[in-house]
Amino acid sequence: MALADIAAVKSYVKGQTIFVDGAEAVGFHGVLTGRARVFKLSFEGKEQILEVFGPGDTFGEAAALSMQRYPAHADAVEKCTTLFFPRQAFRRLVETHPTLALNMLADLSRRLHRFTNLVEELSLKEVPGRLAAHLLYLSERQGDSDDLTLELPKVQLASLLGTIPETLSRILARMMREGLIESVGARHIRILDRASLEDIANAEKRLG
Length: 208
What we know:
Blueprint: H1 3-6, E1 8-12, E2 17-19, E3 27-33, E4 36-41, E5 47-53, E6 58-59, H2 61-65, E7 73-76, E8 80-86, H3 87-96, H4 99-124, H5 127-141, E9 147-149, H6 154-160, H7 165-177, E10 181-183, E11 188-191, H8 194-201
Antiparallel strand pairs: 1-8, 2-7, 3-6, 3-8, 4-5, 4-7, 9-11, 10-11
Helix pairs in contact: 5-8, 6-7
């Protein structure tokens, strides 16, 4: 039995629910096309995006493998196709192919490190520092390129960074005025001064 034998292709339109917070974790997803996000909702309905997943990423596996419930909501950021791996079938596969579990542990460790950084950024950094850190993270994720594609529209990016769209727009405009970045089209940004972004992300410099 191989991964392809147990996987089912799932398709979602923009905004469609993939799973909900508290539901039984019956399996996990690997993104083929498009993007999905995992997020929490407060009692007042405020969203906090935890992570965005694109092609090649998996999500929901920790809850599925531990036979717990999903700890957050997930939906499609845009039209999205995933491979769905049922929990029981995957657990049987891991029993005969333990290297699958090792690879998954490495990915989960990377994600835990990213989530730890997110918690630190939200609790300790000001919004310009959070945005600078996010742009540098996108650069690393997109092949250490200075030409970035924002994975979320501004409303959702503001949610990820723990701010509001108006504040995010003001900070982006200030970064452009100071020559740190430039806009090169809808949801496309070019980094012009990486060193200054790193200083702002590390709280060694304040945005003017």
